[in-house]
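Summary for the steering committee. One of the milestones for this cycle was to obtain a three-dimensional model of the protein with uridine 5'-triphosphate bound, which we needed before selecting residues for the alanine scan. The sequence and ligand used are listed below.
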Amino acid sequence: MTIKRLRKAVFPVAGLGTRFLPATKAMPKEMLTVVDKPLIQYAVEEALEAGIEQIIFVTGRGKSSLEDHFDISYELEATMRARGKSIEIIESIRQRPGSPVYVRQQEPLGLGHAVWCAREIVGDEPFAVLLPDELMVGGFMKQMAEAYAKTGGNVIGALEVPDSETDKYGVISPGGRFDDRTVEVTALVEKPKLGTAPSNLMIPGRYILQPEVMRILERQEKGAGGEIQLTDAMAQLIGVQPFHAFTFDGERYDCGDKAGYIQANLALALARDDIGPAVRDFARGLLG
Ligand code: UTP
């Protein structure tokens, strides 16, 4: 089996972010900041660290601030230069993702549909999908890409959760072990009733997929929530192509959810040398 190199990543950012209203009425959810960086930048950096060369954003109406974020900001840069200020922090953003490609999802018909919108740019290559509202600390995509280089086929992320929480997530039904972090997938079960989950491995928003999934998405009917679901399409690849799950041991913050977003801000702020001590003192005082 020849394993094609992973070069491309799709970032679906066309969702409406209804769980985060009113913040997301006029601003994309993916531009919400954790400490001082928007969520989308964390996800792009995670992909670049994994050796991804082509960044593909699936955007929608009202997402132009996201495009601006990865573009040159002439006025800002010129003014900062004139004032003798370093522009390193903004220069690095526009240079690192090379030339991102933007495609439009005209209607938010679901994650599966958003991924399908990138089919022409993805072409006949494996590709990664990263959902930017899930912030991963610890280089998840890099580790997944390393696993993919050994297994080929499809590799999805997996995270251990307590048994009492498996009913909230898509869960993996595990088959044979490939190595201590990588397991074959025999089925994907959406939100199993408590006590019936085939494992305690939930599926976070990180995937490495083969281009054949695009052809399945082309015909995919609407599933749960009236949306075209990526999980339904991926499930059809199981047993047809190699399909593994890679367990991540870092941290995941669900920043599409208000509590998860606050947790991410707190955890990342506490970990910083510059602001960490002050935030820690404040939090201690607040909690008495
Ligand atoms: P979510 O379901 O978490 O995002 O999708 P959402 O629909 O924006 O949020 P809520 O539930 O209404 O609050 C995960 C990712 O998939 C993208 C979203 O932008 C988000 O990054 N997405 C979702 C699309 O690009 N298109 C869609 O049709 C749906």
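Key point for the committee: The chain has a mean pLDDT of 93.
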